[in-house]
Amino acid sequence: MTTPQDQILFACVEHCCYFKLCGELRYTNATGMDDLVERLFSAKLQCKQVVVDLNEASFMDSTYIGLLASLARYCQQQDLPKPTLFCTVPAVNELLFSLCLDQAFDIVQQPTNQAVDMTSVQAQPYSDQQKGLMILHAHEALIALNEKNKTEFQSVVDVLKQQLA
To answer: Is 134 helix (H, G, I), strand (E, B) or coil?
Structure first.
């Protein structure tokens, strides 16, 4: 069983960025992932391909799924190949497909045999304002995927924008 400190594992090997996300993935423990995605966007990491392993994830909330959508958007903006996402957890796959992440990722419902030496990514000390912005941006990324998500999450985005104004 992974400890809360090992929920996010990351490695960049030969310009391929590997993310392994484990356990219950909620907005309350998403700051490390958000910081990592931000570092990708700011090009501090030289990434030519992205692989996400969710085989040990037991739950994901909409904020975490929005962070994955942000990751896919990064790949699109950088003209990188569509990221690959591995997941054998039926409940997580159902959620990914219901929120149309299959449009943004190549979802492979198989285990991974990656023998990559990964580093644990620690949570970042975000202020309440930073956490609110992280949740807002994650939900905006979900909405950007398609109209169905817009219907589902626009009210969340509107409330967050009011609270953060």
So the answer is: helix
Please name which of 127, 96, 163 lies closest in space to residue 31, comparing C-alpha atoms.
127
Q: Decide: 60 and 30 in contact? Cβ < 8 Å.
A: no
Quick one: CA torsion of 21, 25, 27, 31, rounded to 10 degrees? -30
C-alpha span between 104 and 82 (Å, rounded): 7
Express each pLDDT in 38-52 by its tens digit. 888 787 667 899 999
Token pair recorded at residue 160:
């967050």
CA dist., res. 39 & res. 29, Å (int) = 17
Q: What is the DSSP letter of 122?
A: P
pTM: 0.91
Q: Which sign does the torsion angle of CA 131, 133, 139, 144 carry?
A: negative
